[in-house]
Specification:
Blueprint (H helix, E strand, L loop, with lengths): L1 H8 L1 H134 L2 H19 L1
Amino acid sequence: MEFLTELLADGYTWYTLSFLIFAAIIIKVASPIITSGLDSRIEDIKKDLAEAENLRVEAQEMLAQYQRKHRDAVQESEKIIKTARDNAEQFKAQAEADLDEIMARREQQLESRLQRMEQNAISEIQAYAADLAMNAATQIIIDKLDKKTNSKLVGQSIENIEANIH
C-alpha cells in the first residue's frame, strides 16, 4: 500500500495519468473525426484510381483508334503512290508511243520531201539536158546548113506551127 500511496503522491504519476486520460478522450472524440477523414480520403483515392483507370482505358482506345487511322492512312498513301506510279508509267508509255508516231511521221515527211527534191532535181537536169541538146542541135544545124536549106526548114516549121495552132 505504501507503494500505492507513493505512487499517488508523485506528480509524475498524476501527470502520466492525466495525459493518458486526455489521450483516451482525444482518441474517443477524435477517432470518429479521424476515421471519417481517412474514409473520405480513401473514397477520394478510390475515385481518383477509378478515374485514372477510366482515363487509361480511354487512352488505350484512343491509341488503338489512332493506330487504325495511321494504318489506314499508310494504306491510302500506298494506294495513291501505286496509282501515281501506274499513271506515270501509262503517261510514259503514251509519250513514247506519241514520240514514235511523231518520229515516224517526220521520217515519212522527210522521205517524201527527199523524193520531191530528187524528182525536182531530175526534172531540172532533164530540162537542162534538153535545153543543152536543143542548143547543141541548133548550133550543129546552123553550122551544117546553108542559107537555102535553113530558109526551107524555117518555112516548114512555121507551117507546122500554123497547122498545130488552128
